[in-house]
Amino acid sequence: MKKIYLLVLCCLTFSMANAQYCIPSADCSYDDFIDRFTFNTISNLNSGGSNCMSLSHVFSNLTTTVIKGNSYPMTMQSGPSWSESFGVWIDYNQNQNFNDPGEFVFASLSPTTNLVSTTITIPSTAISGNTRLRVRCNYGQNITANQACAPFSYGETEDYMITIQANNVPPVTQFYASSTTTCNGTVSFFDQTSGNPTTWSWTFGDGGTSTLKNPVHTYTVGGTYNVTLVTTNPYGTDTETKTNYITYSPGTAPISASCSPATTSNCCGFGITQFNFNTINSTSSDGSVGYQELTCSQTTVLKGQTYPIFVKADQPAEHNIRAWLDYNNNGIFETNELILSADQVLTASGNVSIPSSVVLNTGLRLRVSADYYVNPAPGPCTEPQVGQVEDYTVIVLNNTNKPDAQFAADRTLSCNGTIQFTDQSQNLPTSWLWNFGDGNTSTLQNPSHTYSLSGNYNVQLIATNTYGADTIIKSNYVTVTQGAGPVAASCTPATTAYCCNYGIYNVTLGTINNTTNGGIDGYQDYSCGTSVTLNKGYTYTLGIRTGPDNPEDVSVWIDYNNDGTFSTSEQVLNSPNQSNHSSSVLIPNTAVLNLPLRMRVMSDFVGAGFGACSNVQWGQVEDYTVKVVDPNSMEAFLPEHKFQVYPNPAHETVTINFYNPANTKGELHLRDISGRLVRSFAIDGSLHEHQLNLMDFSPGVYLLSVTTNGYSKTIKLIHE
Question: Could you tell me the pTM of the whole model?
Fold first, then answer.
């Protein structure tokens, strides 16, 4: 573990080319050092830190010569032990300090142990001759321009001599285009010539010319074109020709956008590397190429259908990702045209439902933007700092298909009978007829229905449009057990920005042992089907396992007074900064007895500071049922059985677990939906586990029942 020292700034006199420079103090004795630095011909590799027991400052004998106006690659890397930030200065005016504008030439984005790279362009205003380059690393904190001489608690400083020469050589011509294929004919060209050219002469291969440095040219006739750039400075002329460089294929291109956001300072591999939407499958360069007009990559979709979208921007760290589709074809991306939004992710995916109000039979612009997550979230016209913007084309056709009826419910097991149904039908139905299986119906698109009696219910939806109707029936889709759950909670916290495998993965308390998917599932109410009976005055072990990648803070409450709220006295676990959380829970004698009580489990990132009704950012909230009994009452002696079937729905194999504390014999019966018995199993002992191979049965809905002395239960099993 690092020790903390109070460091005092110390400047000593050091002679280099008749210059006096400060020598800042730092400490690299705990492996906070610069292990690699390269610049032009300087290559200082595996240096491993020097002078670490003193000021941790090194003046290297490695030198290099650079020319005004030219650009040179630079890389740096720390040792493997600690994440370091980097800062680089060059004393361009040779005034023996690094305080002048433009002399702070590089700062890394964040602390890292990875290789950091950049490009340094020597300004034409630099004074010729020998001068000093300084590179510093600092543990855990970014470096700013005014810290060339500042003391660092942990880090290292390396100084190098560089020789700056006047640019008395002809230019070396280089250029690139925003895209080498175009569907609307418009291409932006960018000069990358070294040697400080003063004039530019472009020929675009179709008779068009320009003398601008970075011109925009519009081709009017389809074809493939050579492009030539001639650059000149006082010392000569150079020419570059790219043969068959631009291909113009007139087609269904979108109208020009109101903006084309350029990358302002790309670094380190940030940007979009893969994009998928329907038939578009685009693997592209990262943000080093800046804005990409890829509207020649097109796909055709149907109004009223839903299509998957995927964006990959996984180097070197997480991005904020957005995507828009210009449904009304006005060249502007409005709020209701946002189709994908994800923050601090390496990949983002979702589904895009094409609305009925979309413009048909013309190319619509789809824009994707990604930037480093510490920067502001992308807007449709916001220039990304290190990330990238890409544009594609989507053509929407009219949909003359009848509906494909589909629906879902917010839950299929309910203790209060209230279910929210959501229409998921494709092909733009215009009317809906629901039958809830209890004699009640609805014509709403997304109805809420309350069942008054316990039981299993079929649910039917008929979706209709101008071209026909379609019906879907889900047999035994809803199971209602009135009164089996706790009173409704006063709040239902949500996960607002899931990230990075945070959340709750396992909860254990008594007979509860529930393994789940983590925060990606958001709030989960298991209180209707997952419960435990506990004795008042007894102590039980509560265990919570959170995400595998990061420690989390976890809190748990039990609503002992059954009022639907969670007071401070009802908090039974507060476990910060752990991945495996546990507590001994003493059930108070004052708890409400013989009624289902709500237990709330919450997790979020370390330091989030949440309460029982707070939304969580990256983590998750889960609710369970606890029933408290008097250990001297008859109810406490009733055996508590446990009947579990998973996964459900299942495709190939399902696991059946039955805990029988009475240790009596019994039977398991598997029946099809008509009630026909298709398989039986004997139960003998307190714990029974069976692997059932579903490949022997046709896909469909089955009923799995367990019967022992004084206990029976039926679970609906779906074989996909």
Answer: 0.54
